[in-house]
Amino acid sequence: MDYRRGVVTGESVWRAILLYGANSATYKFAFGATLLEAAATGRNHVTLEELAPRYAELLCEALQRQPRQGTSARSKFLDTCRAFNAGELDRDMLHRRTVQLGFSNVVDAFPKLGGDQAPLSYYEDQRRNSAAPGLVLRDELLELAGSVHAQDLDAETAARWRLVETAWATGISDGVLGPSLVYDPDQQALVLQSKQRRRSVTGVVAALNGYQDGRCAYCNELMTQNVGSGPIVEHVLPWKLLTRLWRGPDVDAIWNLVLACWSCNNAKGGRAPHETWMPWLEQRNNDLIESRHPLREVLMAQTGATTAERHDTLKLAYRRATELLPTVWTPPVAGHRA
User: Fold this and answer.
1) Where would one find the signal peptide in this protein (predicted)?
2) Domain map of the chain by residue range?
3) Which stretch of DSSP H or E encloses residue 82?
């Protein structure tokens, strides 16, 4: 991920906040999505009254989808949203209480990484400005909302949100692996699987795109999710290993999935990439784990609890894969950036 490698841009810091920030409640996902929508209008000042309807709407929808939207036992604001969903409050009262309760922590907490202020600021807090209370949207946010990747960022936020709420609801984030999140190649989605059923949680493209900064894993070229030839879910160690005498970790799992452009996917075919590329995959998996990703425990169970164990697991899997499929593919030089 660009930010973790010292690349500070509007996109990289935004992704870091949404993908690496603490997950104690899902307010930041609703707030981030609301900010992007507000900034897309081109305005540089918004009031809490203007943000409240969309912000509350997103959280009310989330509570209908999954009742647990935080780690705290109670929340006055979430209780307000629950009351609205139950028909106990009208929309006007929901919006008024959202202004009163919904922004008290998220405005200060959103632009932080690891407890420290993020290197870029997307807004100025002017809530105490009696002349023009609200938020001043900085150029960094306005440019981000107007960029070609704004839709990707919105999709990535939604995907992360669904993974977090699913992890809380099922205990996956605490190391409980049944039910588990698995890859469904037909849907190209992560699905919650139990003995009784399979339920789609989120698309793999949106879930992984932010960790690749919207770039192809192999050639490093930018991709967009709304273009027909955009990201393709790619098995690094080929899926057809499962049709051979494969003695390694399940290659049809998240540790072995990346996003590639059509050109690289087509060129690679059913081959493994050259071993000089493999540190990129190792680093990506470590990034997922270190980001408090909801699949952290699943990844660790599949590949190892420590970086050393994961390195050895990947090295052994690669050796076994290339013993069965010795012809490898060398990605473009630009892709070697682990």
Assistant:
1) none
2) 3-145, 163-335
3) helix 76-85
Strand partners, 25: 70
Closest CA to 111 of 10, 43, 186: 10
> What pTM was computed for the model?
0.75
Spatial contact of 249 and 285, defined as CB atoms under 8 Å apart: no
Backbone angles phi, psi at 234, to 5 degrees: -120, 135
The token duo for 30 is 């609703």
- Tell me the residue type at 184: D
Looking at residue 188, its amino acid is Q
How many whole angstroms separate alpha carbon 316 and alpha carbon 248? 8
Who has greater pLDDT, 221 or 185?
221
* Across 15-19, 63-67, 186-190, 210-214, least confident range: 186-190
Please count the other Cβ atoms lying within 10 Å of the Cβ belonging to residue 184. Answer: 15
Type of residue at 196: Q
| Predicted local distance difference test score (pLDDT) of residue 195 | 45
Residue partners of 91: CB distance under 8 A and separation at least 6: 84
246 in Cβ contact with 320 (< 8 Å)? yes
Instruction: Give the whole-angstrom CA distance, residue 115 versus residue 71.
Output: 18
For the chain, how many residues are written?
338
If one compares 206 and 274, the residue with the highest pLDDT of the two is 274
